[in-house]
Amino acid sequence: MAAPLTGQLICYGRSVVNIEWPRATEGTLGDQINPWGVELFDTVQRAQLSTPARDAAYGKWLDQTSDREGARNDRIHGAVGVIPTPLWIVLFFISIVIFVFMLFFADSSEGAVTQAVLMGSVASVIVAMLLLIRFLDAPFHEGLGGVKPFAMERTLRIIEESIQAAGARVSTPCDGQGAAAS
User: Fold this and answer.
1) Burial of 59: CB neighbours in 10 Å, binned 0-12, 13-18, 19+
2) How far apart are CA 126 and CA 85, in angstroms?
3) Burial grade of 47 (CB within 10 A; 0-12, 13-18, 19 or more)
4) Same domain, 110 and 133
5) Among 8, 67, 98, 136, which lies 20 to 30 A Cα-Cα from 174?
6) pLDDT at residue 151 above 80?
7) According to the model, what pLDDT value does residue 127 have?
8) What is the span of the domain harbouring residue 154?
């Protein structure tokens, strides 16, 4: 049972990296299930728990499945944004109020450069804050600061290296992208 589970885990990871992550970046991930989660569940359901060691391994597997599903739910939730529209409206309103408030501090006895630095620094901080909040609201994107599947890619490398080090033979029921092999 270990070899089929290992192959299916590799397919799960490939699917996350090559299928789900691009969908999250595009904002089209939605509520679709990862088909390899179903395959893993079916394989574990067929396990014969005849020894205490197998019972313990089954319990550990269930814990890891729960962790995997929790991480996937977090990815799905993060892909659609977490900051509601009313909060964005309030943030922009506050920004405008602060900017207008700063206009009332204009002093004709100060030089234009001084006033520009005062207004510019406040405006810069507000814009930076709004950009940071926007980034945190949509972390899956291409380019600078976009969240990438580095942890899953690392896990896949470790699994492959472990299989080679152990001299095990594991066949994967998927292609290199994580799609089911026909």
Assistant:
1) exposed
2) 18
3) middle
4) yes
5) 67
6) yes
7) 95
8) 2-81+141-166
- pTM for the model stands at 0.74
Residues 159 and 95 in one domain: no
Does residue 75 sit in the same domain as residue 105? no
Is 173 contained in some domain?
no
d(CA 15, CA 21): 8
Torsion sign, CA atoms 96, 100, 101, 106: positive
User: Does residue 15 fall inside a structural domain?
Assistant: yes
| DSSP output for 56-110 | HHHHHHHHHHHHHHHHHHHHHHHHT-SS-HHHHHHHHHHHHHHHHHHHTT--TTS
* pLDDT per residue as tens digits for the range 111-130: 889 888 988 999 999 999 99
Count how many domains the chain has.
2
Residue 156 CA to residue 169 CA, distance in Å, equals 16
Could you report the per-residue pLDDT of 32-81, keeping only the tens digit for each? 788 888 888 888 888 777 888 888 888 888 898 888 888 888 888 777 77
